[in-house]
Write a structure and sequence with these properties.
Blueprint (H helix, E strand, L loop, with lengths): L7 H5 L4 E5 L6 H17 L4 E5 L28 E5 L10 H6 L2 E6 L11 E4 L6 H7 L8 H14 L10 H11 L5 H10 L3 H12 L2 E3 L4 E6 L1 H6 L10 H6 L6 E9 L2 E8 L5 H7 L3 E2 L3 E7 L2 H28 L1
Parallel strand pairs: 1-2, 1-3, 3-4, 4-5, 7-8
Antiparallel strand pairs: 6-7, 8-9, 9-11, 10-11
Helix pairs in contact: 2-4, 2-5, 4-5, 5-6, 5-7
The structure holds guanosine-5'-monophosphate and manganese (II) ion.
Length: 332
C-alpha cells in the first residue's frame, strides 16, 4: 500500500501544466476533491496552468467555487507535466485516461480498497479512509487554504461519509471537519443544497424504487431497479438516482441493498451497500467493478432477474461463510 504522504508542492513545482481529473459519473467526493485540488494549486503554484476535467457533474455542486471551470470536453492545449487522478484508478478515468498516459508525471490519490496499488508514479492511496477529499486535505500546506477550499473539502468528506455517519468516519475525519468549518462557510446550507435537497422528479423516482423494492433471502437482502423507460419518462439522468440505494440499505433487518438501473439493452449499473459484514467490494469486483467494503458498484449484463440471481449468489456465499464463522464461535 502507498499510505505515505508526499510533498505535493514539490511534485508540482516545475510544472507548466497540471491536469486534474476523477472518475466517470463523478460523485460528491470526486467533484469536491477535484475542485479543492484545483483551487489550491491555482493559488499555491501560480506559474502553472491548472486544468480540471470531469464528466458533467450534478448542478448541485454549483455552490463550489470553480464549478464553471470544469471542462467536460477534455481539451488539452499543451503537454501535461503533472496529471492528478483523484478518487479512482486509471480504468475509471474515462476520456481522461489517454491524457493520463501521455502526462510527464502521474499522481494518484484515492481511498478505494479496489485500487490495490495505485496507478501513478506517486501514489497516496489509503483504503478505508473516509474520502479522497480528506486525503487531499492531508497534502495541503495550510497557508494556502481558504474558506472556498475548506468548503470543497468539507462537502467531499460529508458526501462520502453519508454526512459523518458511515463506519469510514474516523475521529480524525471529525477533527478535520471541525478545522474546516472554522474557515467560516455556511456548512449547514451546503449540505442541504448538495445532499438532502431533491427535485420533484428525484423524489418520484425514489418513491417508485421503494414501492417496487423486493425483500428476499429471508429478509437479508433488498433489491430495486429503475428501467430505461422510467428514466426517460422522468427525463432523468443517473445522477438523479443518487441516494436511493442508501434509503434501501436502512430497511430494518436487511444486511445488503442492491439498486440497479438500466444503462442499455440487457445492461445494468448496480450499486451495492451492506450494513455489518458482507464485503460488497468483493461482490462488485467479481463482476469487474469495485469500491469500498460497505459501498461498491459494477456494471452487469443480463435481464433484471439474471443480474439479481448472479449478484445474490455472491452475497449468499459470504452470508453462508459468516454463518459458519458464527457457529464455530459459539462452539468455541
Ligand atoms: P455508487 O454505488 O454510489 O455508484 O458507488 C459506490 C462506490 O463504489 C463508489 O465509491 C464508487 O466510486 C465505486 N464504484 C461504483 N461503481 C464502480 C465500478 O463500476 N467500478 C469501480 N471500480 N468502482 C465503482
Ligand atoms: Mn470517494
Amino acid at each position: 500500500m502507498n499510505m505515505e504522504k508526499f510533498d505535493l508542492l514539490e511534485a508540482c513545482k516545475d510544472a507548466g501544466r497540471i491536469f486534474i481529473s476523477g472518475h466517470i459519473r463523478p460523485d460528491g467526493d470526486c467533484v469536491s476533491s477535484c475542485l479543492a485540488m484545483y483551487l489550491y494549486l491555482k493559488k499555491a503554484v501560480p506559474a502553472a496552468v491548472v486544468q480540471v476535467a470531469l464528466e458533467a457533474p450534478s448542478e448541485v455542486f454549483q455552490c463550489i467555487k470553480g464549478f464553471d471551470e470544469i471542462d467536460s470536453t477534455y481539451t488539452v492545449e499543451g503537454a501535461v507535466d503533472v496529471f492528478i487522478a483523484l478518487d479512482c484508478e486509471k480504468s475509471r478515468l474515462g476520456a481522461a485516461a489517454e491524457i493520463f498516459d501521455n502526462a510527464g508525471k502521474r499522481i494518484n490519490i484515492d481511498h478505494h480498497v479496489s485500487n490495490e496499488r495505485g496507478c501513478g508514479d506517486i501514489n497516496y492511496v489509503v483504503p478505508g479512509y473516509s474520502s479522497t477529499a480528506e486525503l487531499v486535505y492531508d497534502l495541503f500546506d495550510r497557508q494556502y487554504v481558504d474558506a472556498e477550499i475548506a468548503k470543497a473539502v468539507y462537502i467531499g468528506i460529508a458526501h462520502d461519509t453519508g454526512i459523518f455517519k458511515y463506519s469510514n468516519t474516523s475521529p480524525k475525519t471529525l477533527r478535520v471537519a471541525a478545522e474546516l468549518i472554522e474557515y467560516g462557510f455556511d456548512f449547514p446550507a451546503v449540505i442541504d443544497q448538495t445532499f438532502y435537497e431533491k427535485t420533484y422528479a428525484q423524489n418520484q423516482l425514489l418513491g417508485r424504487a421503494l414501492l417496487e423494492s423486493i425483500v428476499f433471502m429471508n429478509g437479508n437482502c433488498i433489491v430495486s431497479a429503475i428501467d430505461k423507460k422510467t428514466l426517460d419518462f422522468y427525463n432523468a439522468a443517473p445522477k438523479d438516482l443518487e441516494g436511493i440505494v442508501n434509503q434501501l440499505r436502512i430497511t430494518k433487518g436487511t444486511e445488503c441493498a442492491i439498486f440497479m438501473y438500466e444503462t442499455g439493452n440487457l445492461e445494468y449499473k448496480v450499486s451495492l451497500r451492506s450494513c455489518r459484514y458482507v464485503d460488497v467490494s468483493k461482490v462488485a469486483a467479481f463482476f469487474g467493478g469495485g469500491g469500498h467494503v460497505r459501498a461498491a458498484g459494477c456494471t452487469v449484463n443480463g435481464t433484471f432477474h439474471d443480474v439479481v440471481n448472479n449478484i445474490s449468489k455472491q452475497i449468499e456465499l459470504q452470508m453462508r461463510a459468516h454463518e459458519e464463522e458464527d457457529k464455530l464461535a459459539v462452539k468455541r
